[in-house]
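To close the section, here is one more complete example, presented without commentary so you can practise reading it yourself. The ligand is 4'-phosphopantetheine.
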Amino acid sequence: MSERIAVCPGSFDPVTLGHLDIMSRASALFDRVIVLVSVNPKKVPSFTPEERIDMIKKVTGHLTNIEIKTFDGLLADFVRSIGATAIVKGLRAMTDFEYEFQMALANRKLCPEAETVFLVTRSENMYLSSSVVKQIASFGGDISGFVPHEIKDFIAQRLCNKQ
Ligand code: PNS
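Output:
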């Protein structure tokens, strides 16, 4: 059987414990997982794509079937270009649902050969997001419960006094 490739797209600005949980669960479900640092036109990132890739690399070293890439075009085009059969996304509160549902339907129209697979967040990550992390860090708060310890100091230093 051919290998099952999944793409796990996001802004990852920065990667959080919630993202890491979804990545490791995807890594157990698929042969290969491509974590794709993508462009969300609705967001202005705080970290460069290189910084975001670097942070993801630092925290996913133990997941041997994960690769990290960046792409500034349509997700559906990337998914097709590598022959992936799944787009994996984490689903948190109901507020995520309508937006994610719309993207899943649009991606299916553009790339019917890939399924969007939603992994339900762990309850402790329900209200965790990159924007919450950035806000806490910018006020000098403790982000150790929200991001992997390997990147905590880097994020704190980059964002402190940025509010
Ligand atoms: O972590 P985010 O910001 O919720 O991720 C959203 C992201 C980057 C996955 C989404 O904006 C995306 O897929 N961007 C790539 C461009 C694209 O394909 N847009 C149309 C999706 S229907």
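Once you have examined the tokens, check your reading against these statements. The first helix runs from residue 17 to 29. The mean pLDDT is 96.
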